[in-house]
Amino acid sequence: MSGIPDLPAWAALPVSLLLILGATIALIGALGLLRLPTFYKRIHGPAITITFGAGCILLASMLYFTATQARLVIHEVIIAVFLLMTAPVVSMLIMRAAVYRDLRARKHKAGATAGGVYTIVEEETAGSTPPGKR
Asked: What keywords is this UniProt entry annotated with (predicted)?
């Protein structure tokens, strides 16, 4: 198997650019995971990183191995399809689980009610009157 010195110049430039772009996107996603204050804001960093950063790195890998092996290498397409199909679904399920957890725990300031889609309704106690009948 040949290495980087045997990589033609027409392939070296796109491979290096895709690797730099993918690594930069992954770094931005990691910094977003560290810097953003709430869970609901923090979930966007890794979700975008997986789809775009990993996609660039997989394209670079596919181009590199296609150029060095002198044949079309498409193993990375299977990985990319799997990531593109599962990453948004997993992010949505994690987000939905966090929303329901916060609603069940009645955390008003957690962010689950920020968009106005969900509201936290206070339960009535046995001896109290309903809000409209006082």
From this structure: Membrane, Transmembrane, Transmembrane helix
CA atoms within a 13 Å half-sphere pointing along the CA-CB vector of 23: 8
Q: Which residues of 22-47 are buried (b: 16+ CB within 10 A; e: fewer)?
A: beebbeebeebeeeeeebbeebebbb
Distance between CA atoms of residues 115 and 92, nearest Å: 15
pLDDT in tens, 81-103: 998 888 888 888 988 888 888 88
Cβ atoms of residues 22 and 57 within 8 Å: yes
Structure tokens at 40: 């609901």
Q: Where are the domains of the chain?
A: 7-104
**Structure tokens given for 128:** 């109290």
